[in-house]
UniProtKB/TrEMBL annotation:
InterPro entries named in the record: GAUT (IPR029993), Glyco_trans_8 (IPR002495), Nucleotide-diphossugar_trans (IPR029044)
Gene3D superfamilies: Spore Coat Polysaccharide Biosynthesis Protein SpsA, Chain A (3.90.550.10)
Species of origin: Salvia splendens
Pfam families assigned: GAUT_1 (PF25557), Glyco_transf_8 (PF01501)
Gene Ontology cellular-component terms listed: Golgi membrane
GO biological process: cell wall organization
Top EC class for this record: transferase
Protein name: Hexosyltransferase
Length: 439
């Protein structure tokens, strides 16, 4: 129709006066409306329902929807009520795996919806002759549903219980996975253990290394030199310490003015000495100490140590069973009570002749215990963002890059995308790294 109208257009415009053109247009529109009406009157034409939304908003002029829905004998209301009920039963039928019944129900729902929307479109009431069958068929289905003991209220309760079950399952899974994550995170990976063992062996085997360290007078001279920049690293992780030393050296203007005091434990002492003697780091001076050599560090002096020596505490932190299961594993892990983690609070005692010492914090979240994060100044400078998506520019600009917990780059569960930042400072081609499969 439209096309024909369009065809008329050009010659009409040129040849006929405006009045004639307008009446032609009017005629075309009239024809169009007539055709539409005819289409609407075809009662079961699906395409019409899909094209025009079958909502009840179309009861506008002739019908008052409120009146209709409150009327005791309105067929539209009856059909609507049946549809609502049937939808509930449909869910139950599917849930009970009665797919045949579900299919029949949904066919019936569709049938009734078509009738309702049909009436809505033509804005007249439904007649008993057109909808009687549908009302009866649906009533039969609903009766069958009741025979099957379908009960919406009971079903809602059942679904609710199910959801609660899922929620419980999820929270227990989360708890478990966080526990496993913690365990994986705490465990020293095999490769790092291997590195420690090999380096220790190397230290005892290699007299040259021992001599080199002993004969290095520079270190002894600089140890208490207050004109240098002194940093302390408390760690039992050789790889991490190496990265800290290497990146500090590579990113400083004058590495010669930097003195790094490494404090480790008995187990890693020789390995650390071996590594930092066999490698040079662009002029920075490195000195390795072990915590066991600090005679001042005794129970009468340090309350934490006293606590660690207490048998009750030891049982709580070091035995793998017993205790309150609800305590987060983190707080049951000896690592969190390790003296290496505490030492930074005793820096003046560790380095009595140094007036001022910077620390490289190993566990950032410990700040939270000691700093007031509601204070705007502290938040501005210390807010540790435990965030997996960090703007790369922010990382490039940062003075210190802190990896933590499960994201630590030496772990299997690390975040791969940040590992490159770390890899820059690791010599993976070193024979010992290769032998131990450090990656
Ligand atoms: C529909 O009927 C109700 C109750 O009879 C009335 O309050 C309402 O104003 C009517 N609505 C329209 C749009 O006529
Ligand atoms: C513990 O350390 C303090 C302070 O350094 C010292 O005075 C004391 O003698 C030490 N006690 C023991 C038992 O070593
Ligand atoms: C932390 O800082 C806020 C804001 O400065 C202050 O109101 C609050 O008292 C502080 N809390 C503690 C425990 O110091
Ligand atoms: C330190 O980093 C540099 C630069 O990436 C690297 O070439 C070197 O092997 C690293 N040294 C050690 C001992 O890891």
């Amino acid at each position: 129709m439209r096309r024909r109208g369009g065809d008329y257009r050009w010659p009409a415009r040129r040849k006929f006066p405006n009045a004639l053109w307008l009446s032609l247009c009017g005629f075309v529109i009239l024809l169009f409306v007539l055709v539409l009406r005819r289409v609407n009157h075809r009662p079961t034409s699906r395409s019409v329902y899909t094209k025009r939304s079958p909502t009840h908003e179309r009861f506008t002029d002739g019908l008052n929807i409120t009146d209709e829905m409150l009327s005791p004998d309105s067929l539209t209301r009856q059909l609507n009520d049946q549809i609502s009920l049937a939808k509930g039963f449909l869910v139950i039928a599917k849930e009970s795996n009665n797919l045949q019944f579900a299919w029949e129900l949904s066919a019936q729902i569709r049938n009734s919806q078509i009738l309702v929307s049909n009436a809505a479109l033509r804005r007249t009431l439904l007649t008993i002759s057109e909808s009687g069958t549908a009302v009866r068929d649906m009533a039969l289905m609903l009766f069958q549903a009741q025979q099957l003991h379908y009960d919406s209220a009971a079903m809602i309760m059942r679904l609710k219980a199910k959801i609660q079950g899922f929620e419980q399952q999820m929270s227990s899974t989360n708890e478990k996975s966080s526990k496993y994550g913690q365990i994986v995170a705490e465990e020293v990976p095999k490769s790092l253990f291997c590195l420690g063992v090999r380096l220790t062996g190397e230290w005892f085997r290699n007299a040259y290394l021992q001599r080199k360290l002993k004969e290095n007078r520079q270190t002894a001279l600089k140890l208490n030199d207050n004109s240098l920049y002194h940093f302390c690293v408390f760690s039992n992780n050789i790889l991490a310490t190496s990265v800290v030393v290497n990146s500090t050296s590579l990113n400083s203007k004058n590495p010669e003015e930097i003195f790094l005091h490494l404090v480790t434990d008995e187990v890693n002492y020789e390995a650390m000495k071996a590594w930092f003697t066999m490698n040079t780091f662009g002029g920075v001076t490195v000195n390795v100490q072990k915590i066991e050599d600090f005679s001042w560090l005794n129970a009468s002096y340090i309350p934490v140590l006293k606590q660690l020596q207490d048998s009750e505490t030891q049982r709580y932190y070091f035995s793998d069973s017993g205790g309150d299961n609800r305590t987060p594993i983190k707080f049951r892990n000896p690592k969190y009570l390790s003296m290496l983690n505490r030492l930074r609070f005793y820096i003046p005692e560790v380095f009595p002749s140094l007036k001022k010492v910077e620390t490289c914090m190993e566990t950032f979240h410990r700040y939270q215990k000691y700093l007031n994060y509601s204070h705007p100044l502290i938040r501005e400078h210390f807010d540790p963002a435990f965030e997996p998506f960090i703007d790369p520019h922010l990382i490039e600009k940062g003075a210190v890059l802190h990896f933590n917990g499960n994201s630590n780059p030496w772990l299997k569960i690390r975040m791969e995308k940040y590992k490159l930042l770390w890899d820059r400072y690791v010599d993976y081609s070193h024979p010992l790294m290769l032998q131990c499969n450090v990656r």
